[in-house]
Amino acid sequence: MKKDIICILILGGSWQTAFCQNIPGVENPCTTSSQGAAGNFIISYTIGEMPLVQSWQSNGLLITQGTIQPLTFIADSAYQCFSQTEVKVYPNPNPGIFSLQLSLLKKGKAKTILFDAAGKLLQTDEFDYTTFTTKQFNINRFASGVFYLQLFFTETGSSNLKKCVYTIQKIQ
């Protein structure tokens, strides 16, 4: 006998459904998982326990209960992003120094914002972009971990904003 339990998830204001099944001798065989955006970050989580795991196929996808499924999520789909030839971040992972190489064909204003994994603002930099540029970032003063570099670019004479977020991994 299956019961459906509806949970309200405040994060992102989304609805989640937890599926429960009465299994003799098993307490709380309920689980729910979700993924949502909070500020600059995407959060995936699973709550509960799933003692009975089932898998099925749908539209060419393998769906498994109790497993967080990979999901491509673009938080700011209204903004145009950069191509791999326009922006390069290297080396990644890095020991504490990495470079941002801009190879944009237009002049404009650029802005970088560096956050740590907790969303704390670490540094910002605004500059006029005129030609191919490489900016170096020194994150040696911070502990090893994940950082997020936001890059904004507005072409001169235009109001179109390009925006991307790059994940930076500091090791050592």
Describe the protein:
Helices cover 0% and strands 56% of the residues. The radius of gyration is 21 Å and the shape is globular. The chain folds into two domains: 63 residues, no CATH class; 84 residues, Immunoglobulin-like (Sandwich), CATH 2.60.40. With 172 residues, it is mainly β. Strand 12 and strand 13 form a beta hairpin. The strands form four sheets. It has a four-stranded antiparallel β-sheet, with no helix packed on it. A four-stranded antiparallel β-sheet has the order 10-9-12-13, with no helix packed on it. It contains no helices and 13 strands.
SSE layout and pairings?
Elements: E1 2-9, E2 14-21, E3 30-38, E4 41-48, E5 55-58, E6 61-64, E7 87-90, E8 97-102, E9 108-116, E10 121-129, E11 133-138, E12 145-155, E13 161-170
Antiparallel strand pairs: 1-2, 2-3, 3-4, 5-6, 7-8, 8-11, 9-10, 9-12, 12-13
Give the CA-CA distance, first to last residue: 52 Å
Number of beta strands = 13
How many domain regions? 2
List the strand order in the largest sheet.
1-2-3-4
Multimer state: single chain
Q: Structural class, from secondary structure content? A: mainly beta
Number of helices: 0
